[in-house]
Write a structure and sequence with these properties.
5 helices, mainly alpha, 82% helix
Length: 91
């Protein structure tokens, strides 16, 4: 059904969309909230619950995140190799 996607409300497409990178960024934001909020406060506990739920959501979307993870690891490896080569040429 090509027109079925149009029937889904925009907010639902945003929350349940196929963008796992957005979800990963949200998890990082929730972890930051846990670290920044006063420990054991109501907001802190709510952020903890959000982290657990978001990590569970990411676990379900891990296959979609693998290409982004592979590219990120490759970028880090390339950076480290270039740094090592730069230091080796200076010495």
């Amino acid at each position: 059904m090509p027109g079925a996607r149009a029937l889904v409300p925009p907010w639902r497409r945003y929350l349940l969309g196929s963008d796992p990178v957005r979800r990963a960024i949200y998890v990082v934001g929730m972890i930051a909230a846990v670290r920044l909020l006063a420990a054991r406060s109501l907001g802190w506990w709510m952020a903890c619950v959000a982290v657990v739920l978001c990590v569970g959501m990411l676990a379900l979307a891990v296959r979609s995140l693998l290409p982004a993870l592979v590219l990120a690891v490759a970028a880090v490896v390339v950076t480290l190799v270039q740094r090592h080569r730069g230091r080796a040429s200076v010495e």
